[in-house]
Design goal:
Elements: H1 2-69, H2 72-80, H3 82-95, E1 100-104, H4 106-109, H5 117-123, E2 128-134, H6 136-142, H7 146-150, E3 152-153, E4 167-168, E5 171-182, E6 185-194, H8 199-210, E7 221-227, E8 230-234, H9 251-259, E9 264-270, E10 273-283, E11 289-298, H10 300-350, H11 366-390, H12 392-397, H13 399-458, H14 466-490, E12 500-502, H15 504-514, H16 516-519, E13 523-532, E14 540-542, H17 544-562, E15 565-577, E16 580-588, H18 618-628, E17 632-637, E18 643-650, H19 652-664
Parallel strand pairs: 13-15
Antiparallel strand pairs: 1-6, 2-5, 3-4, 5-6, 7-8, 7-11, 9-10, 10-11, 12-14, 15-16, 16-18, 17-18
Helix pairs in contact: 1-8, 1-10, 2-3, 10-11, 11-13, 13-14, 15-17, 17-18
């Protein structure tokens, strides 16, 4: 009885104490991965917006310079002389937000200024705008006031690559040039915008990415422009009111972005905190990687939200455990308590107390019936014992004559006792089967309830996954049907079948969807050949759940036989058998096949080739279900290798006519 108690407790508590925490852990791990993937996708989108903004500045700058070069006012200034040209360009420089704007004559183009690719493109008649790195001398030539603006002292930064430099005096310039071709004048119009300490540029970029609407206001976003690995323009704070100019990026980011030319999309430590970050390499007009464009947002709020969600789930789970465990224990006690009482009654009878009884019970289930039958048998035994006692004197006188009768009575008593034991075993099996079906119904109800909650919570958004939700509903109904089969095994007189007319092709396709997680993990190709032959495949009449169970069992057996790689062939055609129309479904694999001397044994109960893994009941049950529907299931080895299982089912119309004829007779 201790063994029965232990098993019942395990059946009651194992799903709650082990399976549910395991599923919860797996679900939380998957959710965490998806959550992180969403953050990375978001920062990638932000980085693309920043890249597009920088490209828009380049395109706009080149287009504005071309417009000036082609303007009538500029041509008039050219005709008046260099002083007028310089005054005209000086007046336009502020409106164009340029730090320098100048006209280069052919003599200037022959100087070192002509080495820049953007100027070379302009001499060939093309406008161009690129990011270029100007040395301190280049800045002094273009605009002396830019030298101090570009100069940024380097700040020692944790995890940055070692360097002996103390100051960054180079400038990152948005370098633009447009051709000037007018009557009597050929040159290049050149302009530039220094990005070092250009806070308007970086703040505009940050506002464009992270202040786009109410959904962005909770994200603490930052943006930075790097010259190589040094921050030359940023809204990242070193202190509360001090921007982190001169700090440097970590060595690992520098190697991936600047050396390997890859985009960084991951969490990274930025100055003094962890950010979900995106780094994009920037190249100059010579094609060299000279800097990086960065956007990112604080990781801390999202980490806090994840922790809060984790603890909420854990608290809910513990609450469910505290509330559910007593209920499960009470239900289990309702099963093993009557069994213990019957065991005690039998022990008293064994000690000679024939008056021991289980007594009246309010249970109307199989255990209550067994208890009543046991009391009835004990009444008979006590009555017979009393009769034997009354006959003791007479038996002493008629020992010789009644010896045979006494032996027969003893044999009958032993047979009765054996029947009692067998009845108890059968009742116990039926009760356990009903109990297992009851325990299955609980998680099935939870699954169905959660699907309904998903539909209510997601609303119209469920249209994207409506097919998957419908499949879950169908499989919950299938589980209910299987539970019904278990109850039918326990109480067969209370249940019936649910046959209907159906076409095999949609059902087989649904089965492939259900086992796709098994097939997709292996190198198995599915070859569907439906509607073979000239005749359409007729509908058949069978319980859809039972046929789905058979097809899924055959597909899973085929995938296991191919051991990870092969071709799964599913063919469907109309076929006649013994003058009756029907449909023939074949499930074939390219595995090793079945030994010829064992082909006739595969449908035997408990026969299996997967020792320690299968029960050997799958094909036996499948054969029973198909035969009950009036069909035939058979197996053969293919010449090309592998086994092929064929299911023939009669046409639904002929099956209905045959059933009507049988009923009439």
């Amino acid at each position: 009885m201790k063994s029965v108690r232990l098993r019942l407790l395990l059946l009651a508590l194992l799903p709650l104490s082990f399976l549910m925490p395991l599923l919860l852990t797996l679900a939380m791990a998957r959710w965490n991965a998806d959550y992180d993937a969403v953050l990375i996708a978001k920062v990638e989108s932000d980085l693309r917006i920043a890249e597009q903004y920088l490209g828009h500045l380049q395109t706009g700058s080149a287009e504005r310079l071309r417009s000036i070069a082609n303007s009538t006012e500029f041509q008039q200034a050219l005709n008046k002389g260099p002083a007028e040209v310089q005054a005209h360009l000086q007046a336009l420089r502020g409106a164009l937000q340029l730090d320098f704007l100048e006209y280069l004559t052919p003599a200037d183009l022959a100087s070192p200024l002509g080495r820049w690719p953007v100027i070379q493109a302009a001499t060939q008649g093309q406008r161009d705008s690129q990011i270029d790195i100007f040395t301190a001398n280049d800045l002094a030539i273009a605009a002396p006031h830019l030298v101090d603006q570009a100069r940024i002292p380097l700040i020692e930064t944790e995890a940055a690559a070692p360097t002996s430099r103390q100051v960054e005096d180079r400038g990152m310039v948005l370098h633009t040039a447009a051709p000037v071709v007018t009557l009597g004048h050929h040159g290049v119009l050149r302009g530039g915008r220094l990005l070092n300490r250009n806070l308007d540029f970086i703040d505009t970029l940050n506002a464009l990415v992270y202040l786009g609407g109410p959904a962005e206001q909770n994200r603490q976003g930052t943006a930075t422009l790097f010259l190589e690995d040094t921050r030359i323009s940023t809204n990242v704070r070193l202190f509360e009111e001090v921007r982190a100019l001169g700090t440097r990026v970590s060595a690992v980011v520098r190697n991936q972005v600047l050396k390997e030319g890859l985009t960084w999309l991951d969490r990274a430590f930025v100055v003094n905190d962890w950010y979900i970050s995106g780094y994009l390499p920037l190249t100059d007009s010579f094609g060299a990687r000279v800097g990086m464009l960065y956007v990112g947002f604080l990781e801390a709020p999202y980490s806090a939200a994840k922790r809060e969600a984790y603890w909420t789930i854990v608290a809910v789970f513990l609450t469910v455990v505290v509330l559910s465990a007593p209920l499960f224990l009470w239900l289990a006690k309702g099963i093993f308590s009557p069994l213990e009482r019957m065991s005690l009654t039998m022990k008293r009878v064994e000690r000679g107390d024939l008056t021991a009884r289980n007594g009246t019970t309010r249970r109307q289930d199989e255990i209550g019936q067994v208890a009543g039958h046991l009391d009835s048998l004990l009444d008979q035994i006590q009555e017979r014992d009393q009769r034997l006692r009354d006959w003791a004197g007479e038996l002493n006188e008629r020992v010789d004559q009644r010896t045979v009768e006494l032996r027969a009575a003893n044999l009958k008593l032993e047979e009765t006792f054996k029947q009692l034991v067998m009845s108890e075993k059968l009742a116990s099996i039926g009760e356990i089967t009903a109990g297992v079906a009851h325990e299955i119904n609980n998680p099935v109800a939870v699954i169905q309830g959660n699907v309904d909650v998903m539909r209510m919570a997601l609303g119209p958004a469920t249209q994207q996954v409506e097919t998957e939700l419908d499949l879950i509903d169908n499989q919950v109904m299938r589980i209910g049907a299987i539970v019904g089969k278990l109850l039918q095994f326990a109480r067969p007189s209370e249940f019936g079948t649910f046959e209907e007319s159906l076409y095999l092709a949609p059902l087989v396709s649904d089965c492939l969807v259900l086992v796709d997680h098994v097939i997709s993990q292996q190198e198995i190709r599915v070859d569907k050949r439906f509607d073979l032959g000239s005749q359409p495949v007729p509908p058949v009449r069978i319980d859809p759940g039972e046929l789905q169970q058979v097809v899924i069992n055959l597909i899973l057996n085929a995938t296991q036989a191919m051991q990870g790689a092969g071709t799964l062939l599913l063919s469907l055609e109309a076929a006649d058998r013994d003058g009756r129309r029907g449909a023939l479904l074949t499930v074939a694999d390219s595995g090793c096949g079945i030994e010829e001397d064992k082909l006739s044994a595969v449908f035997n109960p408990f026969y299996t080739t997967k020792l320690g893994e299968g029960t050997g009941l799958g094909l036996s049950i499948s054969q029973t279900l198909i035969q009950r529907a009036g069909g035939i299931i058979s197996v053969r080895n293919r010449k090309s290798g592998g086994a092929a299982f064929s299911i023939w089912l009669p046409c639904a119309e002929e099956q209905s006519e045959q059933a009507a004829t049988t009923a009439a007779q």
